[in-house]
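Encode chain A's predicted structure.
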Amino acid sequence: MSRDHAVVVGCSFAGLGAARMLSDLYTHVTVVERDELPETWSPRRGVPQSPHVHGIPQLGRTLLAQILPGFVDRAKQHGAVFFDQLRDGALWGLYGWSARGHSPAVGFGVRRALLEH
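Encoded structure for chain A:
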């Protein structure tokens, strides 16, 4: 097996993260996507949850900062925010809505369209 060329299907955030990691191992990485990619961060037609805010916990931010230096600062410049996940987030579970209150669990709210841009 050659380490010359890798192909990733889909430019979701998972696909883009995979492509970034593969770029350390392969000479060329191609990402194949069915949607036309917008020039600016805006929702894509094939991604219904694209305008939704995604909460990235601390470990996710740490890993993203390692593989994409400057990610957190650049996302903040475009409107991403830190938030108390328990106080400001909403979680529906088996027993209904989660309790609300102050917590040390800090999330990073980023719209999916911005993540993928």
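The longest strand covers residues 106-111.
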